[in-house]
DNA sequence: GACTCTGCCACAAACGTTTGCAAAGTGCCG
DNA sequence: CGGCACTTTGCAAACGTTTGTGGCAGAGTC
């Protein structure tokens, strides 16, 4: 029923091979016959059968993407970037939601591998070995995950943390809390690493809590812990947690940013529209998706811009209304059950000492 | 390089056709040889080449989905449902973001059509004619769009509106505002229709504003207009607009829900976590995605549960903290620039009279 | 005028799978 | 023991495309 290359050939009075060449390697056919073929193809509405083509060429014209959680706006941003760049390069995209299960993720990539020319994987929980084994199946590009020999698009989380620390330090904050996301998430380790380095350089004390579920509820839970410690600023693993923190602080009657500064990470839509608007680090989600596809395609057909195997994208601190100058210690009248704010200023423990969370301070969730 | 059916055949000492049959129509081969073939396939890690298969069978094992905007959490919810049900049925899914452009949407479906067995399309802006023409290319299922002869999964927006009206009426509200989403969006027309019917039955007056951009900013813009009219409750086209309304009302010093009730539509994540938590109608996004795939598959291979061509999913009003009993007229001290609240109670105009927005009240955006 | 060279085109093989058909084997009945 | 039905298997064609090879014509060269 659908029109094949032979129908076009017949109409244009040429052989099928000429049609094929006229549609691709055009310099091998005479100009006039090429016109004739193109006209015939247009009139018949010819669309090549991708299955037949990929059978002979070994290429599919598709790429895949697997994400851990479609509910997370971060990944839908990535998805957007991936899709837009892929379409621009003439590729269609398969997608799959691993539902935060590394074995499901692996199975999905495995299933896709025969139908795609490559896949970009966002797999914060998968093991290095798993990823390497998948790289043997089809060409891979990672997102926010650094692994030797496998190309990756990375977002400069550490740089974002540095900007946060500089910002808070300039506002006079000397002691901050960091609310960890999942310990096995690559990006949490990366953000923590960047924070520790920046804090140590800025001589800022950092108290760590968690790990927590990287969601609103996790932030609610974490807020009380941070409040009890006497910090003047809270840095959350991501925006969802930061929103939870804001909600809990409001319930407890702690004014943000006057009494407590709060910073998130990701710059989701809702960071801009919540009250008060959240200071956060913008992650280049769409750009990350685009870059990942660029890397993938350059590995496949040299179409990409052929930069190195790893590309790091800049992040930017967006200062909104949840950060302000650190409050003086005495000005906290109505937080009832707080601990005495012992030695929280310059006289407190050094950053290095506080980095390792003690049993009491850390471990809000079983690890 | 990859292992083919012939490799398996050789190892199992049978012909390729026997391997093929052993892997599918198992009753045609003897039990013992089937075992042998299966073992050989397992040992070699054989994965059939989908291109070759689809070339001969004419089926691809893929479905597609096109959505108008990946940034909208509503559609990512649908996406999740689609993907999960598709995987369960052994299908992989292509996706494409039409970026709210009907012609792009059409082009995407057209491009996909050769690689998929069917596609579910969420195309609130496409014309009926466009959709019908696409239905000729491949089998289609619509989401939230009713069109004769084309199967569709529908969410009962009208029912949701009825629940809103009943809820508000029970709280004593007699005059409400509706903030229209885009006029050419099917779901806005549907919600408005449901609202008008329910309001007329409940003898509630409805003043309409808009259309507005169905985003936060649209809500901000709309809030002032509704406030000026003297309504006691605002029903927004969707949650994003409702959040904008909340933000603007807070800025204007209008207490929610004491002085104004606000209702959204969709039940996005953020409706639950904003302050105060938003009363809204839960749309069954994932269930809708699942249902759409069910319908699609039953059209393709009889795999679905074979219900009728249209399936309507129930919606539920989630009452949270933005709705309360209507304020009495005198208790509005600090809204400065409001109009005199003339005749807004039972003595006011009938519902039918107010339904057609007059020039002065409507048209906040050029149409 | 015979040779080579070049431009253009058709023929046919190949990709990996499914499937109709025939052949071979087996068991049963008359 | 021949014929028949039935089961099990292999052969080969087909799906629609790309691409290597070869042929044919015309032009150029000696």
From TrEMBL, chains A, B:
It comes from the Bacteria. This is LacI family DNA-binding transcriptional regulator. PROSITE patterns: HTH_LACI_1, HTH_LACI_2. Residues 323-367 are annotated as: Disordered. InterPro entries: HTH_LacI, LacI/GalR-like_sensor, Lambda_DNA-bd_dom_sf, Peripla_BP_I. It comes from Rugosimonospora acidiphila. Residues 340-353 have a biased composition (Low complexity). Keywords: DNA-binding, Transcription, Transcription regulation. Residues 3-57 form the HTH lacI-type domain. GO terms for molecular function: DNA binding.
């Amino acid at each position: 029923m659908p029109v094949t290359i032979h129908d076009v050939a017949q109409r244009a009075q040429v052989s099928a091979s000429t049609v094929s060449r006229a549609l691709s390697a055009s310099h091998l056919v005479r100009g006039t016959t090429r016109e004739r073929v193109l006209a015939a193809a247009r009139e018949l509405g010819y669309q090549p059968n991708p299955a037949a083509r990929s059978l002979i060429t070994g290429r599919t014209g598709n790429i895949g993407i697997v994400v851990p959680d479609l509910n997370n706006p971060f990944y839908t941003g990535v998805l957007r970037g991936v899709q837009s760049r892929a379409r621009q390069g003439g590729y269609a995209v398969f997608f799959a939601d691993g539902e935060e299960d590394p074995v499901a993720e692996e199975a999905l990539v495995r299933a896709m591998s025969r139908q795609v020319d490559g896949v970009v994987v966002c797999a914060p929980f998968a093991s290095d070995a798993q990823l390497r084994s998948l790289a043997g199946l089809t060409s891979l590009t990672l997102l926010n995950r650094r692994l030797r020999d496998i190309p990756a698009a990375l977002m400069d989380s550490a740089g974002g943390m540095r900007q946060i620390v500089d910002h808070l330090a300039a506002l006079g904050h000397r002691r901050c809390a960091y609310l960890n996301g999942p310990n096995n998430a690559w990006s949490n380790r990366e953000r923590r690493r960047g924070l520790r380095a920046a804090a140590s350089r800025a001589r800022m004390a950092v108290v760590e809590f968690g790990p927590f579920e990287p969601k609103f509820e996790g932030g609610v839970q974490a807020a009380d812990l941070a409040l009890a410690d006497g910090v003047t600023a809270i840095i959350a693993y991501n925006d969802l947690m930061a929103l939870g923190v804001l909600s809990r602080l409001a319930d407890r009657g702690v004014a943000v940013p006057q009494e407590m500064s709060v910073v998130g990470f990701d710059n989701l839509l809702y960071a801009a529209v919540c009250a008060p608007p959240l200071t956060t680090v913008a992650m280049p989600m769409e750009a990350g998706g685009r870059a990942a596809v660029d890397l993938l395609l350059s590995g496949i057909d040299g179409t990409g811009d052929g930069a190195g195997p790893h590309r790091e994208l800049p992040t930017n601190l967006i200062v909104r209304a949840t950060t302000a100058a650190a409050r003086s210690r005495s000005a906290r009248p109505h937080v009832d059950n707080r601990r005495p704010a012992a030695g929280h200023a310059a006289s407190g423990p050094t950053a290095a000492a506080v980095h390792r969370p003690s049993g009491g301070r850390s471990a809000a969730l079983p690890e």
